[in-house]
Amino acid sequence: MNLLSFAVKNLQRRKGRTLLTIAGVAIAVAILFSLLSFSAGYERELTREMDSLGFHLLAVPKGCPYEATTLILHGGVIPKYLTNEDLARARATDGVAIAAPMLLQQVTKDGTPHIVYGIEPAVMLPLKPAWKVNGRFFSANETRVMVIGSTLAEKENLAAGSVIPFGPAQEQFTIIGVLQPTGSEDDNFHFLPLADAQRTFGKVGLITAIAVRADDVKHIPRIAEDLEKVPDIQVVTMAQVTGTIMNLVGSARSLLFSVIVIAIVISAAGITNTLLMSVNERTREIGMMKAIGASGHHIGILLIAETLLITTLGGIIGILAALAGSGIIETFVRELIPYAPSGSFVSFDPLLIGGCLLFSIGLGLLCGIYPAWKSARLSPMEAIRGEWE
Amino acid sequence: MSIIEATGICKTYQRGREDVCALRGVNLTIEAGEFVTIVGPSGAGKTALLNILGCLDTPSCGTLAIDGVPVTGKGEAELVKIRREHIGFVFQQFFLIPTLTVGENVGLPLIFSGSPYDRQKIESLLEKVGLSHRAEHFPGQLSGGEMQRVAIARALVNNPRILLADEPTGNLDSITADGIYRLFEELHRQGITVIVVTHNRELAQRAGRVITIRDGLVNGGC
Q1: pLDDT for B105-132, tens place per residue?
Q2: How far apart are CA B32 and CA A139, in angstroms?
Q3: Contact with chain A for residue B112, Cβ under 8 A
Q4: Distance between CA A67 and CA A290 in Å, rounded?
Q5: Shortest Cα–Cα distance, A318 to chain B (Å)
Q6: CATH classification of B33-57+75-212 is 3.40.50.300, yes or no?
Q7: Is A119 exposed, middle or buried (0-12, 13-18, 19+ CB in 10 A)?
Q8: Distance between CA atoms of A83 and A85, rounded to whole angstroms?
Q9: Domain ranges in chain B?
């Protein structure tokens, strides 16, 4: 037997109370861990999603910056259009590596809106190196063919070879390929050859947006400036989009962090109270221990050890619970924040796990120090008489 | 040589705004290996004296030497060391830890003294107090007399030369109390200085010397 196993046995005396205190710590640490983990995961996923778009800026018709942002994030329809002339000017702009025209349309099937992208495979595919297709991709001059995202294929029970009625005229379209899952919004879209999309929806010669990739990221601001000189064009850069989202998320995040702080303060007060109660109950016993040779130092260490056992165990349980319940918590967090990237936020970041454990230990030291100090300086005689308050 | 030498010990407590004088100049010498009982009516200062002799409390005036070494004026850290090395305590309420086995309760002082956790020593002490078959039991499974025997074994684990007992039979019936006194007599025969505070004059007579304390003064037996 040693001081540590003695501390463990002391904790077993009031099992219910010990377990409740551990649960309190576990809840606080679980909230802390989840929110920190989500906060890091959110930025990571958002950046990843922006990168997976494959382009640096988007040229849209003037007057629609918000619609354009939506369009980038979820796909959407802008009631104004650019022309082939705008496309030509974009392509001629210095520093533009790729300028990919897109026509976006929306069709409604069984009450659900579907987003349709008309694209040029020759310029679009280099922007999306991650795209892998089951079946084949179309060439620019094919008609009545489409490639669809994996989520969409699953939802609608479609595969390469399926034939579906599509568009305002309900023409028979053949699905020639299904994209393998990309983890981005692309998984929900219909992709058609641009010219055929323009024909199908009656928008010949019209473009919704031009996705632009710079030959070097350093050139993005200058390209944006040059493109803005075209009278019809407004430019939205990915950095602007990310910044806007992070601003929106910021307020939700400060709310979440105040929840953490409150949970931790409540938990800390609970631990300190439990310890003070246990010191008060054991006053006479502490006096006895001093009589049989314990120094104030021993008593202090014993109390601190009991606290650390509670908070460290609570911390471990909290982290495990947060990892196990991350799905539920993520759903909750997703509802709270204005825009959620599609990837999972949860990560097994060892640094964060270590940090949360250190936090639990720190919490134990902080909460244990006063009760420990109070019991360490007990006069043995007064303690045995039970006259100490 | 005297193992305890107290000269002019007085002790004043503050109770509310009043000063209560528990001891008023006690002179007391106890020789090594003596079996002494301290008797007196309630409030006479018995426990106050025992606490001072056991270095649990410091006197308001006077001097005390344990084994020839003066202890008055020493700090708590040094007093802990003296208690640990020289004195074993037994209390009326036993103060056993309910979640430790009998054996672990006996070994508890070893944790504090930094001595190795010597199972053989614990076993032999339990045998000495007649409880070797109870080593793995918990205090809740024991009778009052057995619990006090465990407390006595615990008091002896650091090999003290002095055993101080404060009303050790106060919670026990007369037959059990007799057994505890027989144990004290046995320890006395083995050379340990046994000092017992008690209300019970009949049991007190079994000691070699009975010290009566009244109104904070020792009369007779000094």
Answers
A1: 999 999 888 888 889 999 999 998 899 8
A2: 110
A3: yes
A4: 75
A5: 27
A6: yes
A7: buried
A8: 5
A9: 33-57+75-212
Cβ–Cβ below 8 Å for A6 and B111: yes
Does the distance separating the beta carbons of B112 and A292 come in below 8 Å?
yes
CB-based contact A9 B51, cutoff 8 Å: no
For residue A113, report the phi and psi dihedrals to the nearest 5 degrees: -75, 135
Q: CA B187: distance to chain centroid?
A: 13
C-beta of residue B103 within 8 angstroms of C-beta of residue B136 = yes
| Same domain as A174, residue A150 | yes
Are A293 and A351 in a shared domain?
yes
For the stretch A266-279, pLDDT in tens is: 888 888 888 888 88
- Compute the distance between CA of residue B164 and CA of residue B108 in angstroms, rounded to an integer: 18
Q: What is the pLDDT along chain B (222 residues), one digit of tens a residue?
A: 789 999 999 988 877 788 888 888 899 999 999 999 999 888 788 888 888 998 888 899 999 999 888 998 888 888 888 888 899 999 888 899 998 999 999 999 998 888 888 899 999 999 988 998 999 999 999 998 899 999 999 999 999 999 999 889 888 888 889 999 999 999 999 999 999 998 888 888 988 899 999 888 886 543
Query: Residues A182, A220: one domain?
Result: yes
Position A358: which residue type?
Answer: L
* Whether residue A192 sits in one domain with residue A98: yes
Average pLDDT for chain A: 85
**Cβ contacts of A296 on chain B, cutoff 8 Å:** 76, 80
Residue A239: inside a domain? no
Residues A307 and A195 in one domain: no
Q: Which two tokens stand for residue B11?
A: 């002790």
- The verdict on residue A238 lying in a domain is no
Q: Are residues A26 and A152 in the same domain?
A: no
Q: How many structural domains is chain A composed of? A: 2
> What range does the domain containing A95 cover?
63-231
